[in-house]
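ok so for the tutorial part 2 we go from a plain amino acid sequence to predicted structure tokens. step 1 is just haveing the sequence, like this:
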Amino acid sequence: QLQASGGGLVQAGGSLRLSCAASGRTLSSYPKGWFRQAPGKEREFVASISWSGGSSYYADSVKGRFTISRDNAKDTVYLQMNSLKPEDTAVYYCAADPNYASSWYRGPNGIDYWGKGTQVTVSS
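step 2 — the prediction. this is what the tokens look like for a chain of 124 residues:
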């Protein structure tokens, strides 16, 4: 129901833009966001956005470098990633859940809808 795309290999300092489109079910009224999981690590919160797009929240590690946005007409959420660092290397997962976007920093447990993930690799 959620399909992420836009991952790839980029050098440190570069940029990537991830997209995540919903299909089969309308999720345009749900808060959406992104998590990531690096090898050997737990899945962690990256960013979330309210259903209207009026509020967004970020992990401290990406604040000021990443920007989340959404287009409800396309039922799509985006993650613009700038000034990428090797430590940003991970599989990035988009998600949708009716819980307030402000609560997503607590972690991935209980999130209802997940995309399959897209690999982001940042070389030094």
